[in-house]
Design goal:
Elements: H1 3-19, H2 24-39, H3 44-49, H4 61-73, H5 77-84, H6 88-94, H7 101-110, H8 116-124, H9 135-153, E1 156-157, H10 158-172, E2 179-183, H11 185-189, E3 193-194, E4 197-202, H12 206-214, E5 219-226, E6 229-234, E7 239-245, H13 250-258, H14 261-273, E8 276-279, E9 282-285, E10 291-292, H15 297-303, H16 319-324, E11 339-343, H17 354-363, E12 368-374, H18 386-402, E13 407-415, H19 426-429, E14 434-438, H20 447-459, E15 465-466, H21 484-494, E16 497-501, H22 511-519, E17 524-527, H23 539-548, H24 562-570
Helix pairs in contact: 1-2, 6-7, 8-9, 13-15, 20-21, 22-23
Bound molecules: 2'-deoxyguanosine-5'-triphosphate and calcium ion (CA) (2 copies).
Length: 577
């Protein structure tokens, strides 16, 4: 639980007690605790673990007990009981961030609002703003929180969010005077799903840019516009915030709003120990009050004695420690990828011919492409049987003689049957350059059975790669139950590569899995699993996941040049490294 959340609970308690007419001393005691927690440079959880809650001003034994209960269980009985004394409508409104007991009471008693919908309607009708001492600003603020709550409920997969943002960036790119337009937040960090989209830019005339932004064809609804920021809801029902500032403070703005929140908190605590106060405006000396501005993130991090940290690593894990030691790895880039080793053609369930796929791959600057159509397993339409695989090998050889600038590897995506057997015989698999094995059916197996099944496939010496290891579909299918650690160990032992599948709804392995696999020294492949020439462009999503998993080019097999890879494929797997 974060300090702000804990502080909010104690502020709410103060308000409840006040509404109930309790002694002002008691009310003020809770207010004081709320404020000290909010401004504490250290997380209360950490203080609690160190037995130092008493160090927080205003915290005595009784409050320390309440904090401990709250932080360890996520609940506070005393608070729940207080809440229960108030009508249910009040409690519904209380769940909206930015609405405390006082406002909730007023909305409930003066306007008889009991639900989110009623609240939103009342705001739109101007009823909330016309309440005594409420006003437009407060009402607008509440509306923003209500809408933020809604959009938090549905996170957009990055595969949908990224093109949307690129569209907006292209449209806005025509605005004269707007520079440095870039995304921040979870999108820039390349998280697999995006809550809302944060854009940053610099300009002299901010108003003009913000007005152009809210008038974009993508805009469905304008939430706010003015000062340095505008917020819209797009046609795709996702919120986009644009912030525009002057050049000289762009670095700290971008850094702050790229987050993650945890990264920023850790950074801020570190700054605090250095006598510095970090914010979106810059870095302020806590002794002199002097504010330094930063035009770039590089300068911002350097001022803190840190190496630049790529956004994909900013999750508040080990990145700050590594940056202190100047040991941030050179992450893999899309341009490091020399070929795609998992694609389908119209021989199985793909749309395009082998040749069309080859030419599209060449256009992307690749040196090689592996054709890996499906085997004729259960539940796979148009899978290839033994005979068709042999025919395809012949065709690939012919094409290789004719095509310049791209080499085709012959391969297959062989189905791992429910019992762990493969769909095609070993003597055929031996003839192929690359064999990818994957689960495509019986996904509901219990963990032990699924793990045994996958291990069995990995143990087969002809299997070079395990495809989409967890089979999850983002927003569609939960991952299969499998002991991934056992799979990783087996992959490491047998020198089987694991795939990062770049299909935007798969992204499988995911970032944290990639991190672990890389730690264990497992070879990774970034493939698209393309079923058409267009899909080959999904490679960037897999590269993003690999970067979040701290991968350098050397961790990824399909960054090596054709000659080296060919040599790998012709030697037996045990000696390939
Ligand atoms: P999302 O939108 O849920 O996918 O995730 P983010 O990371 O884009 O989060 P968002 O849009 O709420 O805020 C953007 C960044 O702004 C966030 O990553 C870090 C910064 N930020 C927002 N709220 C706070 C805060 O309360 N404290 C700190 N230190 N940073 C914050
Ligand atoms: Ca965001
Ligand atoms: Ca945001």
């Amino acid at each position: 639980m974060k300090n702000t959340e804990v502080a909010t609970i104690f502020q709410d308690i103060a308000d409840f007690l006040d509404i109930k007419g309790e002694s002002p001393f008691k009310v003020r005691a809770y207010q004081r605790v709320a404020r000290s927690i909010e401004h504490s440079p250290q997380e209360v959880e950490q203080l609690m673990n160190e037995g130092k809650l008493g160090d927080i001003p205003g915290v005595g034994e009784a409050i320390a007990k309440k904090i401990t209960e709250l932080v360890t269980t996520g609940h506070l009985e005393y608070y729940d009981k207080l809440r229960a004394e108030f009508p249910p409508g009040v409690n519904t409104l209380l769940d909206i961030p930015g609405i405390g007991p006082r406002t909730a009471m007023r909305l409930s008693t003066e306007l008889e609002i009991k639900s989110l919908e009623e609240l939103e309607a009342a705001i739109r009708e101007g009823k909330v703003a016309s309440l005594y001492r409420m006003g437009d600003k407060t009402a607008e603020n509440i509306l923003r929180h209500v809408q933020a709550m809604r959009s938090k409920e549905q996170r957009l997969p990055i595969g949908e969010a990224l093109p949307l943002v690129e569209d907006i960036i292209t449209s806005l790119g025509h605005c004269p005077g707007l520079e440095n337009l870039t995304s921040a937040g979870s999108l820039r960090r390349f998280r697999e799903t995006i809550g809302d989209i944060d854009l940053m830019g610099t300009a002299e005339d901010k108003d003009k840019i913000l007005e152009a932004f809210v008038r974009l064809p993508q805009t469905k609804e304008v939430l706010s516009c003015g000062g340095t920021k505008a917020s819209i809801i797009t046609q795709a029902d996702i919120q986009v915030d644009l912030r525009v500032v002057e050049h000289d403070c762009f670095g700290s703005l971008l850094q702050y709003f790229t987050g993650s929140k945890q990264h920023n908190i850790t950074l801020r605590e570190r700054g605090h120990r250095q006598g510095l106060k970090l914010s979106e405006y810059g870095i302020q000396s806590r002794t002199t009050g002097l504010l330094e501005k930063f035009a770039t993130e590089e300068e911002f991090y350097r001022r803190l004695g840190l190496e630049f940290i790529p956004p994909e690593l900013r999750e508040g894990q080990i990145e700050i420690e590594k940056a202190e030691q100047w040991a941030i790895p050179e992450l893999i880039k899309l341009s490091d990828i020399k070929g795609d080793l998992h694609v389908h053609t119209n021989w199985s369930d793909g749309h395009d011919s082998i040749e069309a796929m080859a030419l599209a791959a060449r256009d992307l600057g690749y040196q090689y492409l592996a054709i890996t159509d499906h085997s004729a397993g259960r539940g796979i339409a148009h899978g290839l049987n033994e005979e068709r695989v042999r025919e395809q090998i012949v065709q690939i050889n012919t094409l290789n003689q004719r095509l310049n600038g791209i080499h085709l590897f012959s391969g297959v995506e062989v189905d791992i049957r429910a019992d762990g057997n493969l769909d095609l015989p070993d003597d055929l698999l031996r003839e192929l350059d690359i064999v990818i094995a994957g689960v495509h059916s019986a996904m509901g197996q219990e963990e032990e059975k699924m793990t045994r099944r996958i291990l069995r496939a990995i143990e087969n010496p002809h299997v070079d790669v395990l495809a989409h290891p967890t089979c999850r579909l983002l927003g569609g299918r939960e991952p299969v139950s499998v002991d991934l650690e056992a799979v990783f160990k087996a992959a490491a032992r047998t020198n089987t590569a694991l795939e990062i599948n770049s299909m935007p709804d798969r992204l499988d392995l995911k970032d944290t899995h990639v991190f672990r696999a890389r730690e264990l020294g497992i070879k990774l492949l970034i493939n698209t699993d393309a079923h058409s020439t267009k899909h080959l462009e999904y490679m960037r999503f897999g590269v993003g996941v690999a970067r979040r998993g701290w991968c350098e080019a050397r961790h990824v097999l399909n960054t090596i040049p054709l000659a080296e890879l060919s040599a790998l494929f012709t030697s037996p797997r045990s000696s390939s490294a």
